[in-house]
Design brief:
Structural class: alpha+beta
Order of helices and strands: EHHEHEEEHEHHEHEEEEHEEEEHEEH
Number of strands: 17
Largest sheet: 6 strands, antiparallel
Shape: globular
Distance between the termini: 17 Å
Radius of gyration: 21 Å
Strand order of the largest sheet: 7-12-8-9-10-11
Length: about 350
């Protein structure tokens, strides 16, 4: 049933001036979200953004009651720095923004893996704040703990995520490592560990830290993406990924090197009910407490990516968090657009999330 009050939402994504001029609720990949918002009586309009016309977008957002944002942290050499400043300003003047940049900096960065490593989804996770810490600690940890995965704090699409394993270990920083980036099309390289660490120093410049986790041997079993509408699961996606797995002899562009399709499932899918219970009843509330986030500030749509951890003594699966995505969560399960619209309406009304 439509609400008695008329609400307006701006749906924001990145594009050029031509895309902004041509955008309609029907001609973009978010069209299902527009349809579900309209079904609830909410007027939703495209708000295509680029730094070149940011002032126009800002004025548009200030006429809305809420803003739903889909913009990656890194895209064709551009960051979200200017956008996040604008969104903070807009949010301070009345409209709510999901996800708010301050919430992204708490839960949508790799640092969350370190801050929440004591929760049931955590693992042996280290954090390096600067190059000196990194150079001092990483070589010995690599030698003592086996293959590691390094992650820059903000990124997407596998950028700045590396599997690192020793090939030979003469002494400390003279060790030779084999490294493979998670970026599609990457191939393994061998080099002195000090050379590789020098390559990573750039990651300290942009919201800088590096996260260091153990490589998960069950990576070939696939990744489970748990889609969350505020604090409830709205679906799952399971995918046999190829990131951090060396390409076959045919090369990184061969069909065998490509990831499998992400198979979407509803929230009630039987294989994932143990994970759903953990997310809704334990891990999300615990994360909120650790990070200082209340339900009204949680993103309307976000996801948590899990790899399979070691099986328990009784053969049950465990799960290891490898990333939380907040900035731009898409594609999404078929059930998610209706949940996004319902949760957006609740936020517009100031109602408790459900």
């Amino acid at each position: 049933m439509a609400d008695t009050k008329s609400y307006k939402i701006a749906v924001l994504w990145r594009g050029d001036r031509e895309a902004r001029q041509a955008a309609t609720p029907q001609n973009n990949r978010y069209y299902r979200i527009f349809e579900e918002l309209a079904a609830l009586g909410i007027h939703a309009e495209p708000a295509v953004y680029d730094e070149a016309f940011a002032d126009q977008v800002r004025e548009q957002l200030l006429t809305a009651d809420g803003v739903l944002v889909w913009v990656d942290p890194l895209s064709r050499g551009k960051t979200r720095a200017a956008l996040d400043l604008m969104l903070r300003d807009v949010a301070s003047r009345g409209p709510w923004v999901s996800a708010h940049p301050d919430v992204i900096l708490k839960m949508g960065v790799k640092e969350v893996l370190h801050r929440t490593k004591h929760l049931g989804w955590g693992t042996d996770t280290e954090l390096y704040r600067n190059a000196a810490e990194f150079h001092d600690a990483f070589p010995s940890r690599l030698q003592s703990a086996g293959p590691r995965v390094l992650k820059q704090n903000r990124g997407n699409g596998g950028q700045g995520v590396w599997k690192v394993e020793l090939v030979s270990e003469p002494a400390g920083k003279a060790s030779i490592v084999r490294v493979l980036q998670a970026l599609r099309g990457s191939t393994p390289e061998e080099m002195p560990v000090a050379e590789f660490m020098g390559r990573c120093e750039a990651y300290f410049a942009y919201d800088g830290c590096i996260i260091d986790q153990p490589f998960q041997p069950r990576l070939p079993d696939g990744m489970i993406r748990c889609y969350m509408g505020v604090d409830k699961v709205v679906g799952f996606g399971h995918q046999f990924i190829k990131a951090l797995i060396p390409p076959p002899p045919e090369g990184p562009d061969s069909p065998a090197a490509q990831p499998g399709p992400r198979i979407m499932h509803g929230a009630d899918a039987a294989p994932f009910q143990a994970l759903r219970a953990k997310m809704e009843e334990e891990w999300t509330p615990q994360m909120m407490e650790v990070l200082g986030i209340d339900a009204a500030s949680l993103p309307i749509i976000w996801d948590a990516d899990f790899l399979y951890g070691p099986r328990t003594a009784s053969g049950e699966d465990t799960y290891v968090l490898c990333e939380i995505n907040v900035s731009s969560v898409f594609a999404i399960p078929d059930q998610a657009p209706a949940a996004i619209a319902r949760l957006a309406l609740n936020r517009l009304r100031g109602s408790p999330e459900d």
